[in-house]
Structures are given as C-alpha cells and as structure tokens.
Amino acid sequence: GLELSVNNHAADFSLSTSAGPPVSLSCLVQNSSQAEELLWYREGGKVDLKDGNKVNVSNICISPVTKSDNGVTFTCKLARDKSVQVSVILDVQFPPQLTGEESLQIEENKDVTLTCNAKSNPQAQTAWYKNKNTLILQQNRYQLYQTSEVFQLSIKTVQKSDNGTYTCVVKSALGEGRKDFHLIVEDKKPVFPTEAVIAAAVVVTLTVLFGIVARKDKIFKVW
C-alpha cells in the first residue's frame, strides 16, 4: 500500500500554468510506518534537496516558470524503491510573441519567402494581410507553410503588383502577435551575355594571331 502523491495526485498528471509565476510541487509518502527518503528529478537530472526536505514530505519550487519549462517532466521517487514514483508534466501556456518589421528587395520574376517564427501554447493560427487587407491567395502563385513554430508565405515569380506591406498575424486564445514585411520588387536586371563576350574575344584573339602569322615574313625583314 506504500505510494506517493504529488499535489494530491497519486498518478502521473499534467499541470497547466502560465509563464512567470512560480509553481510549487509537494511530494508526500502515503501509508508508510517509517521514515522514507524522497528524490526529485527534472527530466533525467537529479534535483539537489536540503537535508530537511527529503523525508516523507519534499517540496520543490520552479521560479520563475518560463516558456522553456513547457513539456518538462518533474518526478518524485522513493529512494529505496525508485519504481514507486509520480511524475508531473508542466503545461506552460503563453501567447505568441511576434513583433517587428523586415524589408525585402527582390528582382521581378524571382521567388520570395516571408517567414514568421513564433512559439505559443496553446498553438496559434495565422493569417496573412497585404496593405491591411486580407490576402487573396492566387492559385499557383502563393503557397502557405505552417508548423507549430514557423509560418511562411511563398510568392512565386513576383511581379510589380506584388509591391506592398505584408503582415503576418499569429493568434491564440491568449493573445496575438504580428510582423510586417515591406516587399520591394525591383526591375529585372539585364543578363550580361557572358558567352557572347567570350566568343567575341576568342575571335579577336585568333584574328590577331592569324594576322601576325600571315605577316611574319615582313616582320622578320624589318628586323
């Protein structure tokens, strides 16, 4: 009948919290007639406990709770029998944090990708705007890509009409973030005819050489 409980949970559980305020976890030995030593682990690493915080009851505090603690597992174990344990997974919730602006210059007829990087919990949804109006996605010209942290808009074969400010708006139940992209489409640069120049140089060189060979007798007579 010996068992442990963490914050009154006798089985593994998930604890929802927000980033910032501290979180306290209390591990308690149940149904024991003797003093039992307790151990705490953060993922695979052992947590250092003071001597007065190890027997029958053990408390740890995560302060402050940060976004990096999301999904981290804390486990309380019985020292003499580590199979007796209870784990808690932190579910740290925070709004998307996305700000700022970016300017992009791209040649006409080339492809461009606008990228928003934004973490959030719960997962956010994204919307794209052009010049503050909902972006109408043209088939075969616009492509959207989305993961839990990356939101991308790709524009193929950009035209002058694509000039403008594109806004990535990332929303979750806890808030929203946004980022502006100022897209400037430049005139297509003329392609320098490298092959033609090389060919012309070869022709000129050969002509000069042939001319020298044809006149070598006269050149030698002069000397």
UniProtKB/TrEMBL annotation:
Q: Which InterPro entries match?
A: Cell_adhesion_signaling, Ig-like_dom, Ig-like_dom_sf, Ig-like_fold, Ig_I-set, Ig_sub, Ig_sub2, Immunoglobulin_dom
Per its UniProt record, what Gene3D superfamilies does this chain match?
Immunoglobulins
Q: Where in the cell is it found?
A: Membrane
Q: Give the UniProt keywords, A-Z.
A: Disulfide bond, Glycoprotein, Immunoglobulin domain, Membrane, Transmembrane, Transmembrane helix
Coarse class of the protein's main subcellular location: membrane
Q: Any keyword RNA-binding? A: no
Q: Which GO terms describe its molecular function?
A: cell adhesion molecule binding
**Record Pfam families:** I-set (PF07679), ig (PF00047)
The protein's name = TMIG1 protein
UniProt source species = Haliaeetus albicilla
What is the gene name? Answer: Tmigd1
